[in-house]
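User: Structure please.
Assistant: Input sequence and predicted structure:
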Amino acid sequence: MKVHTYNDGDLAAEHDLATRLPYFERIYICLKGCKKGFLAGCRPIISLDACHLKTKIGGQLMCVVGRDPNDEYFPFAYAVVEVETKDSWTWFLNLLFADIGDGKRWGLVNAFVDNWPQYEHRICCRHLYNNLRKNHPGVLIRDLFWKAAKATYEQAWERAMNELKEVDEDAFKWLQSHSTTIWARSMFKSDGQSDTILNNMCESFNSRILKFRSKPIITMLECIRLYLMTRFQANKEMIMKVESKLCPKIRKRLYKEKLACRKWLACWAGRTKFEVKNGLESFTVDLEEKSCSCRKWDITGISCCHAISCIFFNREDSEKYVNACYKRTAYIDCYDPIIEQWPKICGDLVDSHLCNPLSRGDLLASLRRRGH
């Protein structure tokens, strides 16, 4: 049996037609307050991960985490499944995308490739590097990998990759065998307004709920709901004390770019276009398009040091050019909804004779019968 639950009272169940046994298999939860907050204030980028439940029955907790306007994690949907496979990820993502409108076995990657090729997919570079260093260890290779991954424009990425090729050609070939669109910042699209190359948002959330994962499923889910409810209120109280138009972390990030802009000389080319120079390096900035040839501004939505040198040339406020998704007003919209307590459900039970979840041995046998 697969159970889908929502904070506004809807409940649905699916029976396994192969066995016809009403045993618990999966449960998906998307709280109404979290859904409204994500759609109102978060950027169109999500992180997905699964972690093991620390009970006798086992199972895994899948979660989807967005990024709020202060660049912190925003969990808004999660599910308990029997095991992490392409089938379970596809089931989870189908429900997720129906809501928002639109690993080791790499089940998640396969699910995306087969069902949602229109969405950009990124992998965690920390996991990618851990696989690289198994056969190609060394500090120099590590530094060159991160240099290539963090490069925001193609020329910088090519320089780092050429350096890696000179040091270890096999490491270069191994990295080239992985599509650059999923790990190199220089190839990222600008739609998501994020340059993240790590899945640290999901890891932070999983770490925060670690103590809940050893509890029975219903108790664990209620603990997560209560945690999210109190977190919403705490964040609402925090932002009311902020006087800046920007969220606190974004303001600090912008300040670092302001300090770095002192190295760059802005040369006005006409209208809203500039050429920014520092020795032999130069970049093109268009203030009207909010774009720089280094692509950092394009990818993140936060003015880069090259753009800020041009903004200061015009004697303007740099905060004006930061994307609206980082503003205080967006943060208020994000955490304004309230996560309610579970209401009393009227009507018949989904199934009053629900069996316990399958054991690991029975589960593996069931998966083999399905062809997974």
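Residues 285 and 307 are 6 Å apart (CA to CA).
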